[in-house]
Amino acid sequence: MFTDDQFKSILIKTLERKSSSNYHEGVNKIVSKIKISDVTLDETEDFTYYKGYIRGWNTLCTYLKIKVPFDDLDFFESHKDLLTQTASSIYDKQGDNVLVDTILVPLPENYEVIDFSPLKISDVVSQAIEDAESFMSNGEYPRAFDRVHTAFHGYLIEILKNFGITAPRDESLSKLYNRIQTLIEKEIQPADLADMVKTTIRSSNGMINSLNEARNRHSLAHPNTNIIGKREAKLIIGIASTVTDYISGYLDK
């Protein structure tokens, strides 16, 4: 008899062999997703007729049960026959049981909500952050991405205002961040690290510019056709959060 972990391991190795022989398109993707899914054998006392054995109707059903992220459900459904055939050939007959089908169980995902609480320094910015948090909690990072841009833009303007600097509302993120850099560079301690840290701060302007360009060309804020992917949106949101934490530590007083 197999343990669940043993069966999962053998299933993965068998699929990898199929992939190496070009047996089935997309097997590599199946393997990568199964590795992070919960795989169990559900051995029941339900009778089934299995023509491969003389015992016929005395054969009992085993099901391959895979818990998969909800977003991957359609993908697994499209490869269900391959999974069942492969798993059935591995399982063969264990006691009175044979593996007859694959059951896919949707697994709700706990999406990361990246913390932007330091940005909440005005009503407009706070509303944008609340919208972004709502989108992130449902895994909608491409939609959260635009709201983070709005919040970050408003945050920089408010920080500059606190230092007596008036910036136009339509000024780009890059220009706003350039103004912020000047303020931060005056605060760097110790002095002998100033040049190194200044270089780091200035290089981050490229990331800020990427955030601006991605929002304008690949977000739902404009009628774009090529929308940023979930992972890429989450990456840039994370970068914006890191930069915000750094700015906040020096200037949000």
Automatic annotation (TrEMBL):
Domain Abortive infection protein-like C-terminal: 175-247
InterPro entries, sorted: Abi-like_C
Entry protein name: Abortive infection protein-like C-terminal domain-containing protein
Pfam family, one: Abi_C
